[in-house]
């Protein structure tokens, strides 16, 4: 919905997003699906065990606790900020329009990076699945392009269609991991169930830093709950509940599943097993404890897990594009909403075209779809979203200092400051361990990390340009509606 320079909302002039469409579970499905739990566990957790030892489950718990602390201030602010700009709106209210514009560009790059790179993973995951099931090979590029079309269609349809689809896919991918857990628990693991993973001598080891870096990356995108505020039922309650539900579920589920994988092999044997065949760790475990048919099913569900993640990020990107188009920062055409589906379909089409360009460019260059398309495009996206979390944590106490409110000091000051310190440490861990993520050279990793401050600086320069040449757009950027002021 357009806004005036004073921050007041104008009357609707065309189709709008479907308000009241999403409940707590629907929003949580979007967020948890974006994290792709099955893909994270089967594809990344074995590396966490290999590098961090049997204390790896605690790394996921620590990451979950940190992001829960962040959510305390973040959700408190969500009750007062009613716009559709999510991160950039929050950062603007606390740190000003310049920082908000930098955050807006960083959010676009971050979410696009997290989504577009995954088309490389879709191609390789499908290749692996087809080879595992039939013994034949297929090219990755047609699979990735077909995925682009499928995800574009999902974003074109209504948001409740996407929520229902993601709900089904999420239940399926978590269900196969629960099936593995049941098999391991019933059999008592390789040598009986052990809690050694939670003993301090196994947690506080040199590899803990790497485990924490992997763990924080596994939560990327959980904060996107606020993006769906305009489509949520009773957003003041629904959005915070969905945020806590998503981060709580991910933290506990990740830790539990990694512990289960350790029990499947035994405390003394699992690191060697992860080193021998990290990609096959979970498949071998489920074959042993459940059956070969379950391993085949897991292969298929990894593909659907990737598709669910793509659709969740695609929907988030579309709503960022819609909000920025309504503000006048992006072309006005991107603000069009489908008259029947209530979806930001033009923004979705633009995002799909961008994805196709990037995928085809990497293919034309002969790049590896996993080692380069996925990891090189995902990495700046992941770093960008972590930087936005940090900026949002800093913005919370500054925002509450300026408004009248009835929130407690724990939510508005203590928790955000603690979260800022913890997120700074987390971001530092990830940056200093980029080589473990990308497998690339120091030069490549430096460029990937440098993209984040470069994009933020570009946003600052854009804000300066708009303030001088288009002051009306600058003034209404993330403008505070009258309802927000009243809420304070």
TrEMBL record:
<feature type="domain" description="Amino acid permease/ SLC12A">
    <location>
        <begin position="31"/>
        <end position="462"/>
    </location>
</feature>
<keyword id="KW-0472">Membrane</keyword>
<feature type="transmembrane region" description="Helical">
    <location>
        <begin position="137"/>
        <end position="156"/>
    </location>
</feature>
<feature type="transmembrane region" description="Helical">
    <location>
        <begin position="282"/>
        <end position="313"/>
    </location>
</feature>
<feature type="transmembrane region" description="Helical">
    <location>
        <begin position="447"/>
        <end position="466"/>
    </location>
</feature>
<feature type="transmembrane region" description="Helical">
    <location>
        <begin position="345"/>
        <end position="367"/>
    </location>
</feature>
<feature type="transmembrane region" description="Helical">
    <location>
        <begin position="203"/>
        <end position="222"/>
    </location>
</feature>
<feature type="transmembrane region" description="Helical">
    <location>
        <begin position="242"/>
        <end position="262"/>
    </location>
</feature>
<keyword id="KW-0812">Transmembrane</keyword>
<feature type="transmembrane region" description="Helical">
    <location>
        <begin position="373"/>
        <end position="400"/>
    </location>
</feature>
<feature type="transmembrane region" description="Helical">
    <location>
        <begin position="27"/>
        <end position="52"/>
    </location>
</feature>
<feature type="transmembrane region" description="Helical">
    <location>
        <begin position="412"/>
        <end position="435"/>
    </location>
</feature>
<feature type="transmembrane region" description="Helical">
    <location>
        <begin position="168"/>
        <end position="191"/>
    </location>
</feature>
<keyword id="KW-1133">Transmembrane helix</keyword>
<protein>
    <submittedName>
        <fullName>Amino acid transporter</fullName>
    </submittedName>
</protein>
<dbReference type="InterPro" id="IPR004841">
    <property type="entry name" value="AA-permease/SLC12A_dom"/>
</dbReference>
<feature type="transmembrane region" description="Helical">
    <location>
        <begin position="58"/>
        <end position="77"/>
    </location>
</feature>
<feature type="transmembrane region" description="Helical">
    <location>
        <begin position="98"/>
        <end position="122"/>
    </location>
</feature>
<dbReference type="Pfam" id="PF00324">
    <property type="entry name" value="AA_permease"/>
</dbReference>
<dbReference type="InterPro" id="IPR050367">
    <property type="entry name" value="APC_superfamily"/>
</dbReference>
């Amino acid at each position: 919905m357009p806004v005036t320079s004073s921050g007041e909302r104008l009357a609707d002039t065309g189709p709008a997003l479907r308000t009241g469409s999403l409940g707590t579970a629907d929003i949580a499905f979007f967020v948890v699906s974006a994290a792709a739990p099955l893909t994270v566990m089967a594809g990344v957790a074995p590396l966490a065990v290999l590098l961090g030892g049997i204390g790896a489950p605690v790394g996921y718990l620590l990451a979950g606790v940190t992001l829960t602390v962040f959510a305390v201030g973040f959700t408190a602010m969500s009750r007062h900020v009613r716009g559709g700009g999510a991160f950039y709106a929050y950062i603007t209210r606390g740190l000003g329009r310049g920082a908000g514009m930098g955050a807006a560009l960083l959010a676009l790059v971050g979410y696009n990076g997290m989504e577009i790179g995954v088309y490389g993973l879709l191609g390789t995951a499908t290749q692996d699945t087809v080879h595992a099931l039939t013994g034949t090979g297929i090219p990755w590029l047609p699979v990735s392009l077909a995925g682009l079309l499928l995800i574009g269609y999902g974003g074109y349809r209504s948001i409740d269609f996407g929520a229902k689809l993601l709900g089904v896919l999420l239940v399926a991918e978590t269900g196969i991991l629960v099936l593995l857990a049941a098999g391991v628990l019933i059999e008592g693991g390789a040598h009986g169930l052990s809690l050694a993973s939670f003993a301090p001598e196994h947690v506080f080891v040199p590899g803990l830093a790497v485990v924490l870096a992997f763990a924080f990356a596994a939560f990327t995108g959980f904060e996107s709950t606020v993006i769906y505020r305009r489509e949520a039922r009773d957003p003041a309650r629904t959005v915070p509940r969905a945020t806590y539900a998503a981060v709580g579920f991910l933290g506990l589920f990740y830790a539990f599943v990694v512990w289960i994988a350790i029990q499947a092999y035994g405390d003394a044997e699992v690191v060697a097993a992860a080193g021998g065949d990290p990609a096959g760790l979970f498949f071998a475990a489920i074959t042993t404890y459940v059956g070969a048919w379950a391993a085949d099913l897991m292969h298929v569900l990894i593909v659907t897990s990737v598709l669910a993640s793509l659709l969740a990020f695609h929907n988030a990107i579309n709503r960022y594009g819609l909000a920025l188009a309504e503000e006048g920062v992006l072309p006005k055409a991107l603000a069009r909403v489908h008259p029947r589906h209530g979806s930001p379909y033009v923004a979705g089409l633009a995002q799909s075209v961008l994805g196709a360009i990037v995928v085809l460019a990497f293919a034309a260059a002969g790049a590896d779809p996993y080692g380069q398309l996925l990891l090189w495009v995902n990495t700046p996206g992941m770093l960008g979203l972590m930087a936005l979390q940090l900026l949002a944590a800093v913005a919370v106490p500054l925002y509450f200092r300026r408004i009248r409110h009835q929130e407690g000091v724990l939510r508005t000051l203590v928790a955000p400051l603690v979260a800022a310190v913890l997120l700074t440490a987390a971001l530092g861990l990830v940056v200093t361990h980029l080589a473990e993520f990308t497998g690339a050279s120091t030069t490549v990793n430096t460029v990937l990390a440098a993209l984040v401050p470069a994009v933020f600086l570009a946003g600052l320069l854009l804000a300066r340009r708009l303030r001088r040449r288009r002051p009306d757009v600058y003034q209404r950027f993330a403008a505070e509606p009258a309802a927000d002021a009243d809420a304070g």
